[in-house]
Amino acid sequence: MNPAPLTGTPSIQRQLALLTLLGDDDPGVSEQIRAQLIAGGQGTLEWLENHRYHDEPGVRRRLRDIFGHFAAAQADSEFLTFTLAHGEHFDLEQAVWLFVRTRYPDAPIEAYRAQLDDWAGAIRPGLTTAASVEARLQCVNEQLFGKLGFKGNANTYYDPQNSYLNRVMDRRRGIPISLCLLYLFICRRLNLPVTGIGMPGHFLCRYQSPREEFYIDAFHEGRLLTKVDCLKRLKEFGSDFDEGALTPISTRRILQRVVANLHLIHKEARDRAETDRLQRYMIALAR
After folding, report:
1. 81, 115, 175, 198: which could form a disulfide with 162 (CB 3.0–4.6 Å)?
2. CB of 8 within 8 A of CB of 40?
3. Residue ranges of domains in the chain
4. Are 249 and 197 in contact (CB under 8 A)?
5. Banded pLDDT at 235 (limits 50, 70, 90)
6. In the β-sheet with 223-225, what is the strand arrangement from edge to edge?
7. At what angle are helices 109-127 and 176-189 packed, to 10 degrees?
8. Dist CA 9 CA 43 (whole Å)
9. Predicted TM-score (pTM) of this structure
């Protein structure tokens, strides 16, 4: 049975009584009150703000959970609105951070963006003296994979944290597509012509200029590859030769691949709630 939502703003006495029950040691009681407060929607959220720093630790903890629920719901709505409002090409970094908030609603996104700015700023002076494309890309690699210690997480490849950029930045570990996102966002700040390549089985970046072309394997610390190297990889993955596999894909398809990877992980883990949540995003991105 769904709990009856609260209507209007309760009296102070009623608010205090509800919070006391929210902190009850009986999980059945506290969960029923939690469900009732959530069912109250925005109206409940407004008066709960007055009690965010409640004296009782147990109540504070359960209030954080409720605030997190509302924040995640808001992030879910914003992400779906964004994906449905855009076509094949959009600001990929904005979309990635909106996606991060669906799982980590309290993530300090502006702080992460500022961190990317700082990392790019540390690379920029070296680019002015780099004599070749390889030297420029090596400047990026030395900062990200040398000084900062980013690397592919081969040991726990299927950990969902590998797919959320905030956690990749925190832990300095990721999978091919998330490390390529990091690489792309750094290169965009440096005006380097780098794009995402959705090669089957292994996402790559590509530096493309009128005269030169390099494929970048961010999972293996920025290793530079030629087209021949990539074609060999395709054969290793059991894929036939296909020029289309080595051409840039749209920002929408990149984001779709991020979500699809996570959907598969949670589906195999039999996590129904996360699988259903990500399924909604896949449907929205598939249009």
Report:
1. 175
2. no
3. 12-74, 86-285
4. yes
5. confident
6. 194-197, 204-208, 213-217, 223-225
7. 60
8. 7
9. 0.86
In sequence order, what are the beta bridge partners of 152?
Answer: 174
Q: Which two tokens stand for residue 101?
A: 């908030």
CB 253 within 8 A of CB 90: no
Please tell me the total number of residues recorded for the chain in this structure: 287
CA 182 vs. chain centroid, Å, equals 11
DSSP element (H, E) containing 195: strand 194-197
Write the pLDDT tens digit of every residue in 74-91.
999 999 999 999 999 999
Rg (CA), the chain: 23
Closest CA to 252 of 107, 85, 101: 85
Show the tokens assigned to 6.
Answer: 């609260």
From 169, 191, 181, 268, select the one nearest 216 (Cα to Cα): 181
pLDDT (tens digit per residue) in 173-221: 999 999 999 999 999 999 999 999 998 889 999 999 888 899 999 999 9
